[in-house]
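Example 9 (inverse folding). The structure is encoded as follows.
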C-alpha cells in the first residue's frame, strides 16, 4: 500500500523558547524539519506532507529550501488539530494506504524503525515505537513525591504508523481533550496499536538542552 508521511510542524516550541520554533532552527547547517524530512525520504517514503502554523509560511520555506514537497497544510492550536487537518486534507486528495504521522521536532530517524512500523502494519491497523524507562519515576514537587513504579510503562515515540482510513476515522471521533500523540487517539477508537522497538536517537527536541545534545551528536558524527 502507498505510504504517506504527515509531518506536524505547527507548534510554537514554548518549552524550548528562543527566537524561532524549534523545528525551524538550524542544526548543523540544516533545519530540524529538513533533517526529519530527509530521514523519511531516506527510509523510502516518497510522499511527505508537512503541516505548519498559519503564520509560519516564511519560516517553512526557509527551512525546507529546495525540497520538492507539496504545499504545506495549515495546522491548528493543538497537535491533534494539526494532525486532523492534515488527515482531512489528505483524505480530500484521495487518501493513502498507510500514513506515518511524525513530529518535525525529531531530527534523527533510523530507517530500521520505519521498516519495523511498516512490517507491523501488515498484521495490525496501527503501530508505534516504544522505549523502556531507565530512570526512577516519582511525583514532581519542590520536595520529591512518591516514587511511581515504572514496571509496565514505556515511552512512546513517533513516527506512528496507521492504516489511513482507520486513523482518519479515529481522529474524527476523538473528543477526549488534548492528545499528545496519535496512538492514544487510535486506542480510544478501539484500534490495537502494535508496539515496536523505538530508538534513543529518535528523541524529540523539547528543551534547550535537547537541542544542544543534538548539535554535539552531529558535531561528533555519531549519527
Ligand atoms: N505541533 C503541531 N501543532 C500544534 C502543536 C504541536 O503541529 N498545535 C507539532 C510540533 O511542531 C512538534 C510536534 O507537534 O513537531 C510535537 O509537539 P511538541 O514537542 O509539544 O512541540 P510544541 O508544541 O511546538 O512545543 P511546546 O509544547 O513546548 O510548546
Ligand atoms: Mg506541544
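The amino acid assigned to each position is listed next.
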Amino acid at each position: 500500500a502507498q505510504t504517506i508521511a504527515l509531518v506536524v510542524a505547527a507548534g510554537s516550541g514554548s518549552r524550548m523558547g528562543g527566537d524561532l520554533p524549534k523545528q525551524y532552527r538550524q542544526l548543523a547547517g540544516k533545519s530540524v524539519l529538513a533533517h526529519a524530512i530527509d530521514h523519511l525520504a531516506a527510509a523510502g517514503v516518497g510522499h511527505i506532507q508537512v503541516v505548519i502554523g498559519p503564520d509560519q509560511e516564511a519560516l517553512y520555506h526557509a527551512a525546507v529550501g529546495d525540497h520538492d514537497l507539496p504545499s504545506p497544510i495549515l495546522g491548528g492550536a493543538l497537535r491533534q488539530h494539526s494532525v486532523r487537518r492534515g488527515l482531512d486534507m489528505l483524505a480530500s486528495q484521495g487518501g493513502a494506504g498507510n500514513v506515518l504521522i511524525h513530529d518535525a521536532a525529531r531530527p534523527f530517524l533510523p530507517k530500521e524503525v520505519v521498516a519495523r512500523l511498516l512490517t507491523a502494519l501488515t498484521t495490525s491497523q496501527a503501530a508505534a515505537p516504544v522505549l523502556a524507562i531507565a530512570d526512577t519515576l516519582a511525583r514532581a514537587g519542590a520536595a520529591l513525591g512518591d516514587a511511581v513504579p515504572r514496571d509496565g510503562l514505556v515511552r512512546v515515540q513517533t513516527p506512528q504508523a496507521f492504516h489511513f482510513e482507520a486513523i482518519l476515522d479515529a481522529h474524527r471521533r476523538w473528543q477526549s481533550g488534548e492528545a499528545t500523540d496519535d496512538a492514544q487517539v487510535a486506542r480510544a477508537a478501539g484500534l490495537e496499536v502494535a508496539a515496536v522497538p523505538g530508538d534513543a536517537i529518535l528523541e524529540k527536541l523539547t528543551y534547550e538542552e535537547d537541542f544542544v545534545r543534538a548539535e554535539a551528536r552531529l558535531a561528533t558524527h555519531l549519527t
